[in-house]
Design a protein that fits this description.
Blueprint lengths: L2 H21 L7 H26 L5 H24 L5 H23 L8 H26 L4 H28 L9
Length: 188
């Protein structure tokens, strides 16, 4: 297994630890959200790093093509579900984001049956970047509010990033579907 694939697996392995520290009330006091934030940032950085290494050293594999976007979806969706549970992110936003992920994943499966690879678009990459930025800012604000008090500017930036991510989620869905609408036509 090459380094990019190991980084992708590492990101998946970090997810339960992230969720645990973000949600668990185990007597660790105010450190839980800080530890969760550090884990999320580390996992987010592996997302950027594994792709760069794979492309630079020609280490792109079918495993990586499958697992890298799946790891991203698992990380982001886990974080958003946790933040919904903590009453930080509205559930309707999370439903739209997760629905988009299911639609695109299903769309990619149909395309794969016809030997068509649907690469990530710039809209999808922007979406993921803003989702991760919003999650980082919202957890950072949560950690700060536990230690000091809510930092309004961090909260506002997190909310702005979240709504930008929501808009990009919708735009990227429309972009994927419009550019690849031929995939849905019956193949003879």
């Amino acid at each position: 297994m090459n380094l990019p694939n190991k980084l992708t697996l590492f990101r998946v392995i970090l997810i339960p630890f992230f969720v645990f520290f973000l949600l668990a009330d185990i007597g660790i006091g105010k450190a839980g959200p800080i530890v969760a934030l550090i884990i999320f940032i580390a996992a987010s950085l592996t997302d950027m790093l594994d792709g760069k290494i794979a492309r630079k050293y020609n280490l792109v594999t079918n495993f990586g093509k499958f697992m890298d976007p799946l790891a991203d979806k698992l990380l982001v969706c886990s974080a958003l579900i946790c933040l919904t549970d903590l009453n930080i992110v509205p559930s309707w936003i999370v439903i739209i984001i997760i629905a988009r992920e299911f639609i695109i994943s299903g769309f990619r499966l149909i395309a794969a049956e016809h030997q068509i690879v649907i690469a990530a678009s710039m809209w999808g990459k922007f979406k993921t970047t803003f989702q991760m930025a919003a999650i980082i800012l919202l957890i950072l604000n949560m950690a700060a509010s536990l230690m000091i008090h809510q930092v309004d500017v961090i909260y506002i930036l997190g909310e702005i990033a979240l709504y930008i991510a929501l808009v990009l989620t919708i735009i990227s869905l429309i972009d994927y579907l419009s550019k690849n609408r031929g995939v849905l036509k019956e193949q003879d």
